[in-house]
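Thread: "does anyone have the structure for this chain?"

Original post by V.I.:
We have the sequence but no experimental structure in hand. Need at least a predicted one for the grant figures.
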Amino acid sequence: MSVLHTLQGRAILQQEIRKSRFIAMAAPASDPEQALAFIEDSRNIEATHNCWAYRIGQQYRFSDDGEPGGTAGRPILQAIEGQGLDRVAVVVTRWYGGIKLGAGGLARAYGGCAAECLRRADRVPIIDQVDVHVFCEFPWLEILRTRLRDFSASQLAERFDASGADLHLRLPRDCVPALSELVRDLSRGHSQVRVD
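Reply from O.Q.:
Generated one for you, tokens below.
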């Protein structure tokens, strides 16, 4: 399975198609609420249409905003999916220029404008993160802390008791086996990584 990407930041593209002006705006979105907030902020009330789509994992929505059904929102969503993107929201705003584009022309215009905006945007891979807990005795606590960077791990919390610390960490799922091996070696097999 290929790695999905999201956008590094916002992107914008303007095109004129048969005298209609189109502006595509795209942004990363970690959840539907963030996507809808971006869509609302990007909406231009003076424009003829503000069509949009977002995909976040298995959640997606789109809107034709008054254009004929299936001619705007779905092509924008297909542009997102066609480029292997996730956690992305796109708004394509149109100012009508007096020439009708027809259903096929609208779908090509909205989908093409969104696709070109996304093609030009900077991307970052989506790395599957996982939360883990590690019980760590005091003698090897500092060694483990200094090695966390090797596993791209961040410490979220820690709890202490008389014998050591319970560390709550977040790291890429692919790094869990290597961290587990280090913990086994440091603890001489007495401790292990527990995935939440």
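V.I.: this helps a lot. The first helix runs from residue 32 to 42.
O.Q.: and Residues 129-195 form a domain with the Alpha-Beta Plaits fold (CATH 3.30.70.240).
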